[in-house]
Amino acid sequence: MLCPYLPQMSRFNLCGRIKLRPAEHLVIIVFLSESVMAFAWEPTGNKFAFIHGESPRISVSFYSIRAGKVELMKTLERRQANHLFWSPAGQFIVLAGLRNMNGVLEFVDASDVTVMANTEHFMATDVEWDPTGRYVVSAVSWWGHKVDNAYWIWSFQGRLLLKQPQERFCQLQWRPRPQCLLSAEELKGLKKNMKKYTEQFESVDRLRQSNVSSEQIEKRKTLMAEFKKYREEKEEELEHYKSRRIALRGGVDTDVLYEEEIDEEVVEFLLKVEEKVLDE
């Protein structure tokens, strides 16, 4: 699938190629009334997004392609963005306002075009997804700015996980993800039987959790038994020396000297009154 942009005509030409014969090309044209700043395909899905307009009225539009038709999903208006960064796994995208836009970062779930987080890494010059699509790095490179050089690590949902200042920091690159050891058929079977595997793993997790809980319960029971034993020993010792205490205190039993009867009093307050009209 190709998407050449023709700025003089403000339109996209979406070319879907099935075979190499020119007659079998499918061309879909999307006309725009504004200039386009950035365009990006979803790596693993059927969506694309682009930034259009001019400051301060910059918008980001999301489209999907189904059965040869291009459909507008949603347009996010008045955004501070000049770059688009899709997750390698698809679905999630970061709208970034780098360099002169002060590092505004907007994390979007493109499945329904909802904004998960709106944040900022001031003066950010670079954004880089990790190969799994779980983490994102924003960075202030020494090549772009000579001060506040650092890299920050975010979750795919836009939650800040780490701030790492680094003097004269220039570039960060993720290690490439190793190739999967499973064949295509094994992956297909795994996805097909995912429910069965999920139940197995959940049962193992419950068993481990129950083992931990039973160990904690046994530990608490042991501590309670030791405490009760200690208390009984001290109560017996207290009773054993009671006669000697009374004799030393002139025949007065001080154990019951300050015992008082406790009366319980209940006070009620009116908190709220509701009136409801019932239909006859």
UniProtKB/TrEMBL annotation:
<keyword id="KW-0963">Cytoplasm</keyword>
<keyword id="KW-0396">Initiation factor</keyword>
<dbReference type="GO" id="GO:0031369">
    <property type="term" value="F:translation initiation factor binding"/>
</dbReference>
<keyword id="KW-0853">WD repeat</keyword>
<dbReference type="InterPro" id="IPR011400">
    <property type="entry name" value="EIF3B"/>
</dbReference>
<dbReference type="InterPro" id="IPR013979">
    <property type="entry name" value="TIF_beta_prop-like"/>
</dbReference>
<dbReference type="GO" id="GO:0003743">
    <property type="term" value="F:translation initiation factor activity"/>
</dbReference>
<dbReference type="GO" id="GO:0005852">
    <property type="term" value="C:eukaryotic translation initiation factor 3 complex"/>
</dbReference>
<keyword id="KW-0175">Coiled coil</keyword>
<keyword id="KW-0648">Protein biosynthesis</keyword>
<dbReference type="InterPro" id="IPR015943">
    <property type="entry name" value="WD40/YVTN_repeat-like_dom_sf"/>
</dbReference>
<protein>
    <submittedName>
        <fullName>Translation initiation factor 3 subunit B</fullName>
    </submittedName>
</protein>
<keyword id="KW-0694">RNA-binding</keyword>
<feature type="domain" description="Translation initiation factor beta propellor-like">
    <location>
        <begin position="34"/>
        <end position="172"/>
    </location>
</feature>
<dbReference type="Pfam" id="PF08662">
    <property type="entry name" value="eIF2A"/>
</dbReference>
<feature type="coiled-coil region">
    <location>
        <begin position="187"/>
        <end position="244"/>
    </location>
</feature>
<dbReference type="GO" id="GO:0003723">
    <property type="term" value="F:RNA binding"/>
</dbReference>
